[in-house]
Automatic annotation (TrEMBL):
The chain crosses the membrane at residues 50-70, 114-135, 147-171, 178-198, 204-221. It comes from Hymenobacter sublimis. Keywords: Cell membrane, Membrane, Transmembrane, Transmembrane helix. Pfam families: TauE. This is Probable membrane transporter protein.
Amino acid sequence: MGYGVVTAISLMSLNISPAAVSASIHTAEMFASGASGYHHYRFGNVNKRLFKVLLIPGVLGAITGAYLLSKFGETYAAYVKPLLAVYLLLLGVRIISKAFSQPGPRQKHKKLGLLAAAGGFLDSFGGGGWGPLVTSTLIAGGRTPQYVIGSVSVTEFFVTFASAVTFFATLGISHWQIILGLIVGGVAASPLAARLAGRIPVRWMFVGVGLMVIVWSVWALRKVFM
């Protein structure tokens, strides 16, 4: 959780257009999420029923978000970029708040499809958000972090694949150096992340990701308004 959010706010601080940021992230994330999903499946971290419920709505949300950003992101970049920076800042605050909230009894989520669709849309349109939104919501509902992280990670491969294909069809592919760097880093880190999932305190995972997102968001907003 946090790959898309952290890389999105990092690339936005380099004055890359929102559409190019999200397209680059999702092209690279196909490989990173594929490796991550494979290792989670290998280590037994996947709830197949949860995966099936999240899959189709997440993919449809991702396609919608990617299409809208590719059509309107460049035209309204001056407005979209600060909005996305604020959105990512709020995600960072949400992640940290989840770190210090105690999961209650397990709750039955009746709108998992809507949650997945929103996560897929915001992930494509904002460059990140699938993990922070979907993972944190399910964990806060009392589900076992190990299986939530694994199931959401496997689903993320299909979400990012749908997003990347949509961007490729509408924008083509650019910024190969950025994409290559993201692929190498993401694939290299995925086995370690999958092995550590469920073995270190969820609180400190949330705090680390949340702080990184907040710092980069504030930095991006400073560059936009100053």
